[in-house]
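Summary for the steering committee. The consortium agreed at its last meeting that each partner would contribute one worked example illustrating the joint modelling workflow. Our contribution is presented below. We chose a case with several input lines so that the handling of multiple components could be demonstrated. No manual editing was applied between input and output; the record is shown as generated.
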Amino acid sequence: MPNTIELKFWRQDAQDTPGYWEEFSLPYQPNMNVISCLMEIQVKPVNKAGKTVNPVIWESNCLEEVCGSCSMVINGVPRQACAALVDKLEQPITVKPLSKFRTVRDLIVDRTPMFQALAKVKAWIPIDGTYDLGPGPKIPPQQAERMYEFSKCMTCGCCMEACPQYSQKSEFIGPAPIGQAYLFNQNPTGAMNKDERNHALMGVGGVADCGKAQNCAKVCPKEIPLTDAIAEMGRETTVQWFKDLFAKTK
Amino acid sequence: MAKFIVVGGGLAGLMASIKLAEAGQEVQLFSIVPVKRSHSVCAQGGINAAVNIKGENDSPDLHFHDTCKGGDFLGEQPPIKEMCYAAPSIIFMFDRMGVTFNRTPEGNLDFRRFGGTLVSRTAFAGATTGQQLLYALDEQVRRWEAEGKVTKFEGWEALSVVKDDSGACRGLCAVNLSSMEIKTFPADAVILASGGPGQVYRQSTHSMVNTGSIVSEVYQQGADYGNPEMIQIHPTAIPGIDKLRLMSESARGEGGRVWVPKKKGDNRDPKQIPEGERWYFLEEKYPVFKNLVPRDVASREIHHVAVDMGLGVGGQLMVYLDLTHIDKATLNRKLGGILEIYEKFMGEDPREVPMKIFPAMHYSMGGLWVDYERKADGFLDKQSPKNQSTSIPGLYAIGECEYQYHGANRLGANSLLSCVFAGQLVAPAVQSYAKAKKEAAPASAFQAEEKRWTERFAKIQAMKGAENPYALHRELGELMVANVSIVRDNAKLKETLTKIDALMERWHHVHSVDDSRWANHPMLFINQLWNMLELAKIITLGALNRDESRGAHYKPAFPDRDDTKWMKSTIASWTSAGPKLSYRDIDVSLDKPVARHYD
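What follows is the complete predicted structure of the assembly.
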């Protein structure tokens, strides 16, 4: 059994300063994950060279892979740091912030564009109100299970990181919001407003910008079949295009 | 139009924001994390409502009785009654919002069993119900945000409330987690929905943000705190270095069985231990409720069997939770999310091998004291400004950070319900409160609060002592887990209070650790740590004073519930000389307290 855990963290002191690697060597304990390594550094913020440094700053919350906070690129793969078990990782473990979003400090990035994209595709059911209007529509169990797969999306950004078409500069909306547009189009009430969601995914930056690399579904920590949603939304937007054309000529 | 501040973007805070926006009010919503990442996502098993879809004669009255009894008759009965009656409409609201609840073959909402009741009352979305409900409200808030009615301040930590000369709350002071800017925000009322204090124990099922810091801060500013000693230890968690992950009660609701080997020190692979050599101790001791006794009962029994009798798995406080007799397709459909968590973190498939689980700090029934206004029929006057109001005028509290719905023990799947219900109830209350015209708050009150925090952080940043704040936090957690947990003893509680005082002294000698002026989270943590120490003190003191056993509070030296002396809420008030405890009568007129049996 090894005596130490060797790690390399990407450090960046502020938004506009250059980054650098910093190495740490921690005493080995079984069942560690990348978050518990970061916690050890908080207790003893000393790097491998023996120098006392500022503890590495990161973002996390639930630590059980349901909140989506702690996305990092670990040994080259975007994933949740809480579920990245040291015993299963090759060392030195390299940990970087997601590159497709603005770095705030060290491992913290600003994923605001993802939440803005959810607003753009109107990823919600436009209910009449929260007052008592009785139950919603009956839904076959198979359909509910299919929708549940997509409703587990944590907006963690792993799919966006892995997507070759998505970047801070490109206009492509990215896989996660397309998956959510698909989800709400499936809901019987949500389907009443599917035109709005379809329009948000047509044209520049829309679903047609997908390069079909299929990386998104591969890295999704919740194993959401994002490529199915992209294919389906591709079809829906095409149908929408003809529908719009027909409405215009009529 | 009035302006309201909501602190916390979990279920309670989001529900309050939606109700206020719907009423045409302006809302500023503060959250440390993007609201979609709030701790509500960790709730797994479901949400209770007596919809009675399985023909079991369930009713809101039965739900009400189960909740009062589950809480060992320490809950305030009128708000509990109102909540249980509102529950079905809450489920239907989520249904219309598109929550992907599990369905019956006919396409209706499915319900399952949970602890402390004999009927199927729990609606669920796989085993990630909290996540699904939170997302539904997050989506609706985003819709209101797009319409300009809700403004989010994500990445801001609430530090304190701003009070005027009369002692009323007139706004909030908060700090930006990146720029470290300290700023005050005026409001007609402030609603705290900031969650529980799990980080006081460090090793708990709570999330990282659940320090209870802002609650502790307003307690120090004069808000009373109710039943601090009532801390729920969940019987089934998974061990971990960074956190104790929850294994939902729904595992037992779907038929999971708890057992230990009958023979002490039996180290065989659990699958090799024949049926006759296993002790299903909950089923034997509680033939009616079996594995679905309330959490306090299950945790105590696990502790008794594993520690007192020495039958714990591997000689530890650990038992088996067995699902291997249930077919895999059913398990995946109803419990998939939590089985994945176990598999991922423990490296074993719980569909094949019995899970190893142990009790862990999970929920605080206690929290900020809040008021309510009852009518003669036992229901609430829903327009009253008293509902959910703390003892600081203009400051309201909802969700896990308040004390009134769960008494001495919370029933599983009632927490999501109480969050959403209180979020609905608080909206008319603050609007009624805001109708009474007040003079504009003096600018000096806001300036003074900004100055206080600027100076406090400057002081923290200048601290260069020998203590590491995170190491102190670990010591605090270990102390609380060891002594203020399932079994409580007065000598140990007294010793714990002395040790908390010693930690508070050592806090003054911490090292500020991080010298940055940008996103300096260690500096904020040092402040949170002090606030956690203040909470630890009232949790321990409340436990020391209450010489009886009730719900989650169990003292072997005082094994019985003592209604004559202790059917009262503990009220902790902050003074510069230390916490002062007093006791307040509770309204138990709607469901007569009875002996609490589950066998």
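The first helix of chain B runs from residue 11 to 22. Chain B touches chain A through 71 residues (CB under 8 Å).
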